[in-house]
Protein backbone atom coordinates (compact mmCIF):
# COMPACT_ATOMS: atom_id res chain seq x y z
CA UNK A 1 0.00 0.00 0.00
CA UNK A 2 1.19 3.55 -0.66
CA UNK A 3 -0.14 7.10 -0.54
CA UNK A 4 0.65 10.30 -2.44
CA UNK A 5 1.35 12.53 0.55
CA UNK A 6 2.57 15.77 -0.98
CA UNK A 7 2.80 17.58 -4.31
CA UNK A 8 4.72 20.56 -5.69
CA UNK A 9 4.47 22.40 -8.99
CA UNK A 10 6.07 25.54 -10.42
CA UNK A 11 4.35 27.75 -12.96
CA UNK A 12 5.24 26.60 -16.51
CA UNK A 13 6.52 28.96 -19.19
CA UNK A 14 9.71 31.01 -19.11
CA UNK A 15 11.97 30.81 -16.07
CA UNK A 16 14.87 32.81 -17.47
CA UNK A 17 18.10 32.01 -15.63
CA UNK A 18 16.73 28.92 -13.84
CA UNK A 19 18.59 25.64 -14.37
CA UNK A 20 17.28 22.09 -14.34
CA UNK A 21 18.49 21.72 -10.73
CA UNK A 22 16.85 25.04 -9.73
CA UNK A 23 13.45 23.99 -11.11
CA UNK A 24 13.74 20.50 -9.60
CA UNK A 25 14.69 21.98 -6.22
CA UNK A 26 11.77 24.41 -6.16
CA UNK A 27 9.26 21.65 -6.93
CA UNK A 28 10.89 19.19 -4.49
CA UNK A 29 10.89 21.73 -1.65
CA UNK A 30 7.18 22.40 -2.23
CA UNK A 31 6.26 18.69 -2.32
CA UNK A 32 8.13 17.88 0.91
CA UNK A 33 6.53 20.83 2.70
CA UNK A 34 3.12 19.83 1.35
CA UNK A 35 3.59 16.35 2.81
CA UNK A 36 4.49 17.88 6.16
CA UNK A 37 7.92 16.26 6.01
CA UNK A 38 11.53 17.39 6.24
CA UNK A 39 14.37 16.71 3.80
CA UNK A 40 15.80 14.14 6.24
CA UNK A 41 12.60 12.07 6.09
CA UNK A 42 13.21 11.27 2.42
CA UNK A 43 14.81 7.83 2.10
CA UNK A 44 14.02 7.14 -1.55
CA UNK A 45 14.57 9.38 -4.57
CA UNK A 46 13.57 9.09 -8.23
CA UNK A 47 13.99 11.58 -11.03
CA UNK A 48 13.77 11.62 -14.80
CA UNK A 49 16.13 13.13 -17.33
CA UNK A 50 16.76 16.65 -18.65
CA UNK A 51 17.57 17.38 -22.29
CA UNK A 52 19.33 20.60 -21.22
CA UNK A 53 21.40 18.78 -18.59
CA UNK A 54 22.21 15.29 -19.85
CA UNK A 55 23.92 13.27 -17.11
CA UNK A 56 24.48 9.58 -16.43
CA UNK A 57 23.67 10.03 -12.71
CA UNK A 58 21.13 12.83 -12.47
CA UNK A 59 19.53 11.38 -9.32
CA UNK A 60 22.66 11.59 -7.20
CA UNK A 61 23.64 14.94 -8.76
CA UNK A 62 20.29 16.25 -7.55
CA UNK A 63 20.39 14.47 -4.19
CA UNK A 64 23.78 16.02 -3.40
CA UNK A 65 22.65 19.44 -4.62
CA UNK A 66 19.39 19.30 -2.67
CA UNK A 67 21.01 17.90 0.47
CA UNK A 68 19.52 14.44 0.86
CA UNK A 69 21.24 11.07 1.31
CA UNK A 70 18.60 8.53 0.33
CA UNK A 71 19.03 4.77 0.75
CA UNK A 72 17.59 4.23 -2.74
CA UNK A 73 18.01 6.58 -5.74
CA UNK A 74 18.24 6.59 -9.52
CA UNK A 75 16.91 8.25 -12.65
CA UNK A 76 14.63 6.57 -15.16
CA UNK A 77 13.78 7.32 -18.79
CA UNK A 78 10.49 6.43 -20.44
CA UNK A 79 9.98 9.61 -22.47
CA UNK A 80 6.63 11.24 -21.75
CA UNK A 81 5.61 8.28 -19.59
CA UNK A 82 8.51 8.88 -17.17
CA UNK A 83 6.43 10.76 -14.58
CA UNK A 84 3.79 8.07 -14.30
CA UNK A 85 6.42 5.30 -14.47
CA UNK A 86 8.20 6.96 -11.51
CA UNK A 87 4.89 7.17 -9.63
CA UNK A 88 4.39 3.45 -10.24
CA UNK A 89 7.94 2.60 -9.18
CA UNK A 90 7.69 4.75 -6.04
CA UNK A 91 4.47 2.92 -5.17
CA UNK A 92 6.15 -0.44 -5.77
CA UNK A 93 9.19 0.50 -3.66
CA UNK A 94 7.09 1.74 -0.76
CA UNK A 95 4.78 -1.25 -1.02
CA UNK A 96 7.81 -3.58 -0.91
CA UNK A 97 9.24 -1.84 2.16
CA UNK A 98 12.34 -0.57 0.37
CA UNK A 99 11.64 3.04 1.33
CA UNK A 100 9.22 4.93 3.57
CA UNK A 101 9.06 8.27 1.77
CA UNK A 102 10.03 8.37 -1.92
CA UNK A 103 10.55 11.82 -3.41
CA UNK A 104 9.86 11.95 -7.17
CA UNK A 105 11.04 15.00 -9.13
CA UNK A 106 11.05 16.24 -12.71
CA UNK A 107 12.17 19.64 -13.96
CA UNK A 108 13.89 21.29 -16.87
CA UNK A 109 14.57 24.69 -18.46
CA UNK A 110 13.60 23.19 -21.82
CA UNK A 111 12.34 26.51 -23.23
CA UNK A 112 15.07 28.99 -22.25
CA UNK A 113 17.93 26.49 -21.82
CA UNK A 114 18.27 25.73 -25.54
CA UNK A 115 17.04 26.88 -28.94
CA UNK A 116 13.67 25.68 -30.18
CA UNK A 117 15.43 23.92 -33.06
CA UNK A 118 17.70 22.08 -30.63
CA UNK A 119 14.68 21.00 -28.61
CA UNK A 120 12.78 19.76 -31.68
CA UNK A 121 15.86 17.98 -32.95
CA UNK A 122 16.66 16.31 -29.61
CA UNK A 123 13.12 14.98 -29.34
CA UNK A 124 13.02 13.74 -32.95
CA UNK A 125 15.80 11.30 -31.98
CA UNK A 126 13.16 8.97 -30.52
CA UNK A 127 12.86 7.95 -34.18
CA UNK A 128 14.88 5.09 -35.68
CA UNK A 129 18.41 6.38 -36.44
CA UNK A 130 18.70 4.46 -39.74
CA UNK A 131 15.17 3.99 -41.02
CA UNK A 132 13.33 7.12 -39.79
CA UNK A 133 15.50 10.05 -38.62
CA UNK A 134 17.31 10.50 -42.01
CA UNK A 135 13.88 11.16 -43.58
CA UNK A 136 13.49 14.34 -41.50
CA UNK A 137 10.39 13.56 -39.44
CA UNK A 138 9.66 15.61 -36.32
CA UNK A 139 7.70 14.53 -33.24
CA UNK A 140 4.61 16.28 -34.66
CA UNK A 141 5.14 14.29 -37.89
CA UNK A 142 5.22 10.97 -36.00
CA UNK A 143 1.94 11.92 -34.33
CA UNK A 144 0.66 13.40 -37.61
CA UNK A 145 1.06 9.96 -39.17
CA UNK A 146 -0.88 8.37 -36.33
CA UNK A 147 -3.52 11.09 -36.57
CA UNK A 148 -4.00 10.64 -40.31
CA UNK A 149 -4.64 6.94 -39.83
CA UNK A 150 -6.90 7.39 -36.78
CA UNK A 151 -8.99 9.99 -38.60
CA UNK A 152 -9.24 7.67 -41.60
CA UNK A 153 -10.35 4.67 -39.55
CA UNK A 154 -12.74 6.37 -37.15
CA UNK A 155 -14.05 9.37 -39.09
CA UNK A 156 -12.46 11.92 -36.75
CA UNK A 157 -12.03 15.42 -38.28
CA UNK A 158 -9.49 18.21 -37.73
CA UNK A 159 -12.30 20.24 -36.12
CA UNK A 160 -12.84 17.34 -33.71
CA UNK A 161 -9.17 17.43 -32.70
CA UNK A 162 -9.34 21.22 -32.26
CA UNK A 163 -11.97 20.75 -29.52
CA UNK A 164 -9.31 19.26 -27.22
CA UNK A 165 -7.03 22.29 -27.62
CA UNK A 166 -9.96 24.60 -26.85
CA UNK A 167 -10.91 22.56 -23.76
CA UNK A 168 -7.37 22.49 -22.36
CA UNK A 169 -7.07 26.25 -22.93
CA UNK A 170 -10.37 26.87 -21.15
CA UNK A 171 -9.05 24.89 -18.18
CA UNK A 172 -5.68 26.66 -18.19
CA UNK A 173 -7.49 30.01 -18.03
CA UNK A 174 -8.42 29.18 -14.43
CA UNK A 175 -4.87 28.25 -13.31
CA UNK A 176 -2.40 31.08 -12.56
CA UNK A 177 0.59 28.84 -13.34
CA UNK A 178 -0.41 28.00 -16.91
CA UNK A 179 1.84 29.01 -19.80
CA UNK A 180 -1.06 29.82 -22.15
CA UNK A 181 -4.39 31.10 -20.84
CA UNK A 182 -5.92 33.36 -23.52
CA UNK A 183 -9.18 31.80 -24.74
CA UNK A 184 -9.10 30.16 -28.15
CA UNK A 185 -11.80 28.81 -30.47
CA UNK A 186 -11.96 25.88 -32.87
CA UNK A 187 -11.54 28.44 -35.68
CA UNK A 188 -8.33 29.71 -34.04
CA UNK A 189 -6.92 26.19 -33.91
CA UNK A 190 -7.91 25.55 -37.54
CA UNK A 191 -6.27 28.82 -38.63
CA UNK A 192 -3.05 28.27 -36.68
CA UNK A 193 0.19 27.60 -38.52
CA UNK A 194 0.44 24.14 -40.12
CA UNK A 195 3.22 22.07 -38.51
CA UNK A 196 2.88 18.46 -39.73
CA UNK A 197 -0.50 17.64 -41.22
CA UNK A 198 -3.08 17.21 -39.92
CA UNK A 199 -1.55 18.90 -36.85
CA UNK A 200 -1.34 22.67 -36.56
CA UNK A 201 0.45 24.81 -34.00
CA UNK A 202 -2.43 24.80 -31.52
CA UNK A 203 -2.76 21.00 -31.80
CA UNK A 204 0.76 20.77 -30.30
CA UNK A 205 1.86 21.30 -26.71
CA UNK A 206 4.36 24.10 -26.16
CA UNK A 207 7.96 23.76 -24.95
CA UNK A 208 8.22 25.05 -21.38
CA UNK A 209 10.45 25.59 -18.38
CA UNK A 210 9.06 24.13 -15.18
CA UNK A 211 9.27 21.59 -12.41
CA UNK A 212 6.97 19.16 -10.61
CA UNK A 213 7.38 16.79 -7.67
CA UNK A 214 5.48 14.50 -5.36
CA UNK A 215 6.11 12.29 -2.36
CA UNK A 216 4.90 8.69 -2.12
CA UNK A 217 4.74 7.36 1.45
CA UNK A 218 3.81 4.21 3.34
CA UNK A 219 1.19 6.01 5.44
CA UNK A 220 -0.82 9.21 4.94
CA UNK A 221 0.85 12.23 6.58
CA UNK A 222 -2.34 14.33 6.70
CA UNK A 223 -6.03 13.85 7.37
CA UNK A 224 -6.89 12.82 3.83
CA UNK A 225 -5.15 9.80 2.35
CA UNK A 226 -4.70 9.57 -1.41
CA UNK A 227 -4.04 5.90 -1.89
CA UNK A 228 -2.47 4.30 -4.95
CA UNK A 229 -4.92 1.51 -5.75
CA UNK A 230 -2.85 0.04 -8.55
CA UNK A 231 -0.77 0.75 -11.62
CA UNK A 232 0.42 -1.13 -14.68
CA UNK A 233 2.39 -0.64 -17.89
CA UNK A 234 2.53 -1.81 -21.50
CA UNK A 235 5.36 -1.37 -24.01
CA UNK A 236 4.44 -2.48 -27.52
CA UNK A 237 7.16 -0.86 -29.69
CA UNK A 238 9.52 2.11 -29.86
CA UNK A 239 9.25 3.39 -33.43
CA UNK A 240 6.05 4.40 -35.20
CA UNK A 241 7.12 2.23 -38.16
CA UNK A 242 6.93 -0.79 -35.82
CA UNK A 243 3.71 0.20 -34.05
CA UNK A 244 0.91 -2.35 -33.89
CA UNK A 245 -2.56 -1.74 -35.36
CA UNK A 246 -4.55 1.08 -33.77
CA UNK A 247 -6.77 -1.53 -32.12
CA UNK A 248 -3.77 -3.15 -30.39
CA UNK A 249 -2.02 -0.11 -28.87
CA UNK A 250 -0.60 -0.19 -25.37
CA UNK A 251 -3.06 2.09 -23.55
CA UNK A 252 -5.78 -0.55 -23.53
CA UNK A 253 -3.32 -3.22 -22.41
CA UNK A 254 -1.91 -1.09 -19.57
CA UNK A 255 -5.40 -0.10 -18.46
CA UNK A 256 -6.64 -3.71 -18.44
CA UNK A 257 -3.68 -4.66 -16.21
CA UNK A 258 -4.27 -1.64 -13.92
CA UNK A 259 -7.93 -2.57 -13.56
CA UNK A 260 -6.93 -6.11 -12.63
CA UNK A 261 -4.44 -5.06 -9.93
CA UNK A 262 -6.68 -2.33 -8.47
CA UNK A 263 -10.04 -4.05 -8.72
CA UNK A 264 -11.48 -0.81 -10.14
CA UNK A 265 -13.41 -0.14 -13.35
CA UNK A 266 -13.88 2.91 -15.58
CA UNK A 267 -17.36 3.25 -14.05
CA UNK A 268 -15.70 3.97 -10.68
CA UNK A 269 -13.60 6.86 -12.04
CA UNK A 270 -14.64 10.44 -11.17
CA UNK A 271 -11.61 12.41 -12.46
CA UNK A 272 -9.26 11.75 -15.38
CA UNK A 273 -5.65 12.88 -15.94
CA UNK A 274 -4.57 11.86 -19.43
CA UNK A 275 -1.39 12.61 -21.37
CA UNK A 276 -2.03 15.23 -24.06
CA UNK A 277 1.17 16.03 -25.97
CA UNK A 278 -0.99 16.62 -29.04
CA UNK A 279 -4.75 16.85 -29.53
CA UNK A 280 -4.64 13.47 -31.31
CA UNK A 281 -2.84 11.92 -28.31
CA UNK A 282 -5.62 12.99 -25.98
CA UNK A 283 -8.41 11.98 -28.37
CA UNK A 284 -6.93 8.53 -28.93
CA UNK A 285 -6.04 7.85 -25.31
CA UNK A 286 -9.51 8.84 -24.07
CA UNK A 287 -11.01 6.36 -26.52
CA UNK A 288 -8.38 3.67 -25.85
CA UNK A 289 -9.07 3.99 -22.11
CA UNK A 290 -12.82 3.69 -22.61
CA UNK A 291 -13.56 7.22 -21.40
CA UNK A 292 -15.34 7.70 -24.75
CA UNK A 293 -16.43 5.41 -27.57
CA UNK A 294 -14.35 5.17 -30.78
CA UNK A 295 -14.55 8.46 -32.66
CA UNK A 296 -16.80 9.92 -29.96
CA UNK A 297 -14.43 11.80 -27.64
CA UNK A 298 -14.83 15.14 -29.45
CA UNK A 299 -18.61 14.95 -29.19
CA UNK A 300 -18.20 14.43 -25.44
CA UNK A 301 -15.96 17.51 -25.24
CA UNK A 302 -18.64 19.57 -27.04
CA UNK A 303 -21.27 18.26 -24.61
CA UNK A 304 -19.20 19.43 -21.62
CA UNK A 305 -18.49 15.89 -20.42
CA UNK A 306 -14.79 16.56 -19.71
CA UNK A 307 -15.25 20.08 -18.29
CA UNK A 308 -14.85 21.07 -14.64
CA UNK A 309 -18.59 20.63 -14.07
CA UNK A 310 -18.94 17.65 -16.39
CA UNK A 311 -19.32 13.98 -15.57
CA UNK A 312 -15.60 13.27 -16.11
CA UNK A 313 -13.46 16.35 -15.42
CA UNK A 314 -10.17 16.05 -17.33
CA UNK A 315 -6.80 17.78 -16.87
CA UNK A 316 -8.36 20.75 -15.06
CA UNK A 317 -4.99 22.56 -14.93
CA UNK A 318 -4.88 22.80 -18.74
CA UNK A 319 -2.74 19.77 -19.53
CA UNK A 320 0.42 19.73 -21.59
CA UNK A 321 -1.45 21.57 -24.35
CA UNK A 322 -1.93 24.76 -22.29
CA UNK A 323 -0.41 24.45 -18.81
CA UNK A 324 2.74 23.47 -20.70
CA UNK A 325 5.30 20.72 -21.22
CA UNK A 326 8.75 20.90 -19.61
CA UNK A 327 9.63 17.27 -20.33
CA UNK A 328 9.47 14.85 -17.40
CA UNK A 329 7.73 17.40 -15.18
CA UNK A 330 5.03 17.99 -17.82
CA UNK A 331 2.97 14.91 -17.18
CA UNK A 332 3.77 15.05 -13.44
CA UNK A 333 1.67 18.24 -13.38
CA UNK A 334 -1.32 16.01 -14.21
CA UNK A 335 -0.68 14.04 -11.01
CA UNK A 336 -0.18 17.22 -8.95
CA UNK A 337 -3.51 18.60 -10.20
CA UNK A 338 -5.21 15.27 -9.53
CA UNK A 339 -3.93 15.36 -5.94
CA UNK A 340 -5.19 18.92 -5.44
CA UNK A 341 -8.61 17.89 -6.79
CA UNK A 342 -8.77 14.75 -4.65
CA UNK A 343 -7.84 16.65 -1.49
CA UNK A 344 -10.29 19.49 -2.22
CA UNK A 345 -7.57 22.12 -2.69
CA UNK A 346 -8.10 23.07 -6.33
CA UNK A 347 -9.74 26.42 -5.50
CA UNK A 348 -11.71 27.88 -8.39
CA UNK A 349 -10.98 24.72 -10.40
CA UNK A 350 -12.38 22.36 -7.76
CA UNK A 351 -14.63 19.63 -9.15
CA UNK A 352 -17.57 18.19 -7.20
CA UNK A 353 -16.21 14.68 -6.75
CA UNK A 354 -12.68 13.46 -7.41
CA UNK A 355 -12.82 10.49 -5.06
CA UNK A 356 -11.39 8.06 -7.62
CA UNK A 357 -9.00 9.13 -10.39
CA UNK A 358 -7.50 7.46 -13.43
CA UNK A 359 -4.11 8.72 -14.62
CA UNK A 360 -2.45 7.71 -17.86
CA UNK A 361 0.98 8.55 -19.30
CA UNK A 362 2.38 7.83 -22.76
CA UNK A 363 5.96 7.93 -24.01
CA UNK A 364 7.54 7.78 -27.46
CA UNK A 365 4.95 7.47 -30.21
CA UNK A 366 2.27 5.72 -28.14
CA UNK A 367 5.11 3.29 -27.35
CA UNK A 368 5.18 3.14 -23.54
CA UNK A 369 2.09 3.36 -21.37
CA UNK A 370 1.42 3.64 -17.64
CA UNK A 371 -2.08 3.59 -16.12
CA UNK A 372 -2.73 4.29 -12.43
CA UNK A 373 -5.81 4.43 -10.20
CA UNK A 374 -5.87 6.69 -7.13
CA UNK A 375 -8.53 6.61 -4.42
CA UNK A 376 -9.29 9.03 -1.60
CA UNK A 377 -9.52 7.42 1.83
CA UNK A 378 -10.05 9.13 5.17
CA UNK B 1 25.93 -14.06 -32.57
CA UNK B 2 26.74 -13.93 -36.29
CA UNK B 3 28.14 -10.75 -37.83
CA UNK B 4 25.64 -8.53 -39.65
CA UNK B 5 26.69 -7.72 -43.23
CA UNK B 6 26.27 -4.11 -44.31
CA UNK B 7 22.97 -3.39 -46.08
CA UNK B 8 22.90 -2.62 -49.79
CA UNK B 9 19.85 -0.38 -49.97
CA UNK B 10 18.78 3.27 -49.67
CA UNK B 11 20.28 3.47 -46.16
CA UNK B 12 23.72 2.97 -47.78
CA UNK B 13 23.03 5.11 -50.85
CA UNK B 14 21.89 2.24 -53.14
CA UNK B 15 18.58 2.58 -55.00
CA UNK B 16 16.83 -0.37 -53.37
CA UNK B 17 14.61 -1.25 -50.42
CA UNK B 18 15.76 -4.35 -48.58
CA UNK B 19 14.19 -6.45 -45.87
CA UNK B 20 14.94 -9.74 -44.17
CA UNK B 21 13.05 -13.01 -44.27
CA UNK B 22 13.48 -15.69 -41.60
CA UNK B 23 14.31 -19.10 -43.08
CA UNK B 24 12.83 -20.80 -40.03
CA UNK B 25 9.55 -19.00 -39.19
CA UNK B 26 9.16 -17.04 -42.46
CA UNK B 27 8.48 -13.74 -40.66
CA UNK B 28 9.67 -10.64 -42.52
CA UNK B 29 11.37 -7.68 -40.85
CA UNK B 30 12.41 -4.27 -42.13
CA UNK B 31 14.78 -3.08 -39.38
CA UNK B 32 17.98 -4.98 -40.15
CA UNK B 33 19.30 -7.37 -37.50
CA UNK B 34 21.55 -10.44 -37.27
CA UNK B 35 18.56 -12.46 -36.01
CA UNK B 36 14.82 -12.79 -36.51
CA UNK B 37 12.99 -10.67 -33.92
CA UNK B 38 10.00 -13.02 -34.05
CA UNK B 39 11.72 -16.35 -33.30
CA UNK B 40 15.35 -15.50 -32.58
CA UNK B 41 16.80 -17.62 -35.41
CA UNK B 42 20.07 -16.25 -36.76
CA UNK B 43 20.90 -15.05 -40.27
CA UNK B 44 17.55 -13.95 -41.71
CA UNK B 45 17.83 -13.84 -45.50
CA UNK B 46 18.46 -10.46 -47.17
CA UNK B 47 15.84 -9.80 -49.82
CA UNK B 48 15.17 -6.89 -52.18
CA UNK B 49 11.58 -5.57 -52.14
CA UNK B 50 9.55 -4.83 -55.28
CA UNK B 51 8.94 -1.22 -54.20
CA UNK B 52 5.19 -1.76 -54.48
CA UNK B 53 2.88 -0.93 -51.62
CA UNK B 54 -0.16 0.81 -50.18
CA UNK B 55 -0.22 4.10 -48.27
CA UNK B 56 -0.96 3.46 -44.55
CA UNK B 57 -0.51 7.01 -43.21
CA UNK B 58 0.76 10.43 -44.30
CA UNK B 59 1.99 13.66 -42.69
CA UNK B 60 3.06 16.72 -44.66
CA UNK B 61 5.89 18.41 -42.74
CA UNK B 62 5.86 22.23 -42.84
CA UNK B 63 8.04 22.88 -39.79
CA UNK B 64 11.38 21.08 -40.03
CA UNK B 65 13.94 20.79 -37.23
CA UNK B 66 17.16 21.58 -39.11
CA UNK B 67 18.18 24.23 -41.66
CA UNK B 68 19.08 21.43 -44.12
CA UNK B 69 15.61 19.86 -43.86
CA UNK B 70 13.92 23.27 -43.96
CA UNK B 71 15.14 23.76 -47.54
CA UNK B 72 12.88 20.83 -48.55
CA UNK B 73 9.67 22.02 -46.84
CA UNK B 74 6.97 20.96 -47.47
CA UNK B 75 7.79 17.25 -47.70
CA UNK B 76 5.44 14.35 -47.19
CA UNK B 77 6.40 11.67 -44.65
CA UNK B 78 4.51 8.45 -45.40
CA UNK B 79 4.15 4.99 -43.91
CA UNK B 80 3.86 2.35 -46.63
CA UNK B 81 2.57 -1.19 -46.22
CA UNK B 82 4.74 -2.98 -48.76
CA UNK B 83 3.61 -5.82 -51.01
CA UNK B 84 6.05 -8.05 -49.11
CA UNK B 85 4.27 -7.46 -45.80
CA UNK B 86 6.47 -5.07 -43.84
CA UNK B 87 5.80 -1.40 -43.07
CA UNK B 88 8.32 1.33 -43.85
CA UNK B 89 8.69 5.10 -43.55
CA UNK B 90 9.57 7.08 -46.66
CA UNK B 91 8.88 10.28 -48.54
CA UNK B 92 5.95 10.49 -50.92
CA UNK B 93 4.15 12.69 -53.38
CA UNK B 94 2.25 15.42 -51.47
CA UNK B 95 -1.03 14.35 -53.11
CA UNK B 96 -0.90 10.78 -51.73
CA UNK B 97 -3.90 9.58 -49.73
CA UNK B 98 -4.35 6.61 -47.40
CA UNK B 99 -5.13 3.48 -49.42
CA UNK B 100 -3.37 4.65 -52.60
CA UNK B 101 -1.37 1.99 -54.47
CA UNK B 102 2.19 3.25 -54.84
CA UNK B 103 5.57 2.44 -56.35
CA UNK B 104 8.97 3.51 -55.02
CA UNK B 105 11.39 5.73 -56.85
CA UNK B 106 14.21 7.72 -55.25
CA UNK B 107 15.10 11.30 -54.52
CA UNK B 108 17.72 13.17 -52.52
CA UNK B 109 16.91 14.77 -49.15
CA UNK B 110 19.49 16.73 -47.14
CA UNK B 111 22.18 15.22 -49.37
CA UNK B 112 21.05 11.62 -48.84
CA UNK B 113 19.24 9.12 -51.00
CA UNK B 114 15.69 8.45 -49.75
CA UNK B 115 12.79 6.37 -51.11
CA UNK B 116 9.99 8.48 -52.64
CA UNK B 117 6.63 6.85 -53.36
CA UNK B 118 4.32 7.85 -56.20
CA UNK B 119 0.82 6.68 -57.08
CA UNK B 120 0.82 3.90 -59.67
CA UNK B 121 -0.89 4.99 -62.88
CA UNK B 122 -3.26 1.99 -63.13
How would you portray this structure in words?
- The complex is a heterodimer of chains A (378) and B (122).
- With 378 residues, chain A is α/β, with parallel strands linked by helices.
- Chain A has a single domain (3-113, 207-377), classed as 3-Layer(aba) Sandwich (Peroxisomal Thiolase, Chain A, domain 1).
- Chain A is built from twelve helices and eleven strands.
- Chain A has helices at 20-34, 58-66, 82-95, 116-124, 139-154, 158-172, 186-191, 250-262, 279-288, 297-302, 319-323, 328-342; strands at 3-9, 44-47, 72-75, 101-109, 194-196, 199-200, 209-217, 225-235, 271-274, 356-363, 368-377.
- Chain A has a five-stranded mixed beta sheet. Chain A has a four-stranded mixed beta sheet with strand order 8-11-10-9, with helices on both faces.
- In chain A, helix 6 packs across helix 9.
- Chain B contains one helix and eight strands; from the N terminus they run E-E-E-E-H-E-E-E-E.
- Chain B has one helix spanning 67-70; strands at 18-21, 28-29, 45-48, 52-61, 75-82, 87-92, 101-109, 112-119.
- Chain B folds into two domains: 1-48, no CATH class; 52-119.
- Chain B has 122 residues and is mainly beta.
- In chain B, strands 4-5-6-8-7 form a five-stranded mixed β-barrel. Chain B has a three-stranded antiparallel beta sheet with strand order 2-1-3, with no helix packed on it.
- The longest helix of chain B has 4 residues, at 67-70.
- The A-B interface holds A 117, 120-121, 124, 128, 130-132, 134-138, 140-142, 144-149, 152, 193-199, 239-242 and B 11, 30-32, 56-66, 69, 72, 75, 77-79, 87-91, 98-99, 109-110, 112, 114.
List the helices and strands and how they pair.
The complex is a heterodimer of chains A (378) and B (122).
Chain A: E1 3-9, H1 20-34, E2 44-47, H2 58-66, E3 72-75, H3 82-95, E4 101-109, H4 116-124, H5 139-154, H6 158-172, H7 186-191, E5 194-196, E6 199-200, E7 209-217, E8 225-235, H8 250-262, E9 271-274, H9 279-288, H10 297-302, H11 319-323, H12 328-342, E10 356-363, E11 368-377
Parallel strand pairs in A: 2-3, 2-4, 9-10
Antiparallel strand pairs in A: 1-7, 4-7, 5-6, 8-11, 10-11
Chain B: E1 18-21, E2 28-29, E3 45-48, E4 52-61, H1 67-70, E5 75-82, E6 87-92, E7 101-109, E8 112-119
Parallel strand pairs in B: 6-8
Antiparallel strand pairs in B: 1-2, 1-3, 4-5, 4-7, 5-6, 7-8
Amino acid sequence: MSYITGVGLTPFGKHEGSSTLDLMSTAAEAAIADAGLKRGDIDGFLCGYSTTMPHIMLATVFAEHFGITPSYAHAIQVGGATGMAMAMLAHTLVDAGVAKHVLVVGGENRLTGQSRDASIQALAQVGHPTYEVPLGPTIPAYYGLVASRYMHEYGVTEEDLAEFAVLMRAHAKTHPGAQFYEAITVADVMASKPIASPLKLLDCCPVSDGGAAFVVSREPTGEIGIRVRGAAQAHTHQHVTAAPALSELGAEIALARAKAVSGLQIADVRYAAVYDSFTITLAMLLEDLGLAGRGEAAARVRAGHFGRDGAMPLNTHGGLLSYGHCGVGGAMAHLVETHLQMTGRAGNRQVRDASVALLHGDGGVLSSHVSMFLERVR
Amino acid sequence: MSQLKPAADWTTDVEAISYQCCALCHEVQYFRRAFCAACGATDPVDTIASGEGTVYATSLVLRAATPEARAHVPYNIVLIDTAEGFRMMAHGDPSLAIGDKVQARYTRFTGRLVPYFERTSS
